[in-house]
């Protein structure tokens, strides 16, 4: 199926954005499991994006994993991440902005946060790699990004993902009710 048709058929679109290696693809795979993941084929590995479908409490949604396999210098990283964030703002209903609690807050995180704050999209700020309870305290530094609640989770072991999805699908319920 072509991407446009695929997205038209699924109004509830979640895009996952953030720096390389924060764990976006790990969360995408956990959300989508083996279900209907498709890969957008465009020129160049940096344009690689993955689309998948899933559901939570009976509410269906699509997930876009952005970033793909990014190669190059820091400048190219920065430019590509910005491009992915702009695309996500354009087409997603909800954006998961993922940061890495092991790395802590970086200047690139702050740059992305600025772009996202200017958009009118609903943003879920997710601090990934909270694999143990000690790290739950470390997520607090991300409150300074000014994006509201920080959802601590571990994409590897799945902890915290249920709470995140509970809150995300509330956005979709509201959308349906308003229509
Ligand atoms: P992406 O570049 O943002 O898509 O990141 P990936 O999903 O490819 O993950 C980058 C690295 O972080 C991989 O080695 C993952 O195994 C690791 N990773 C992802 N999620 C977690 C997590 O919750 N905890 C830990 N400790 N590592 C993680
Ligand atoms: Mg990835």
Structure commentary:
Helices cover 35% and strands 22% of the residues. The protein has 179 residues and is of the alpha/beta class. The chain has a seven-stranded mixed sheet with strand order 2-3-4-1-5-6-7, sandwiched between helices. A hairpin with an 8-residue loop joins strand 2 (38-40) and strand 3 (49-56). Helix 3 packs parallel to helix 4 (107-118). The model is unreliable at 42-46 (pLDDT under 50). Guanosine-5'-diphosphate binds at residues 20-26, 67, 128-129, 131, 154-156.
List its salient traits:
179 residues; alpha/beta; 35% helix; 22% strand; globular; binds guanosine-5'-diphosphate; binds magnesium ion
Summarize, please.
The chain is of the alpha/beta class and 179 residues long. The protein has helices at 3-8, 24-32, 74-91, 107-118, 161-178; strands at 13-17, 38-40, 49-56, 59-65, 94-100, 122-128, 150-152.
Alpha-beta content class:
alpha/beta
Task: List low-confidence stretches.
Answer: 42-46
Q: So how many helices?
A: 5
Q: Which range does the strand content fall in?
A: 15-25%
Strand neighbour order, sheet with most strands: 2-3-4-1-5-6-7
Summarize the topology.
Blueprint: H1 3-8, E1 13-17, H2 24-32, E2 38-40, E3 49-56, E4 59-65, H3 74-91, E5 94-100, H4 107-118, E6 122-128, E7 150-152, H5 161-178
Parallel strand pairs: 1-4, 1-5, 5-6, 6-7
Antiparallel strand pairs: 2-3, 3-4
Bound molecules: guanosine-5'-diphosphate and magnesium ion.
Residues 24-25, 67 line the site of magnesium ion (MG).
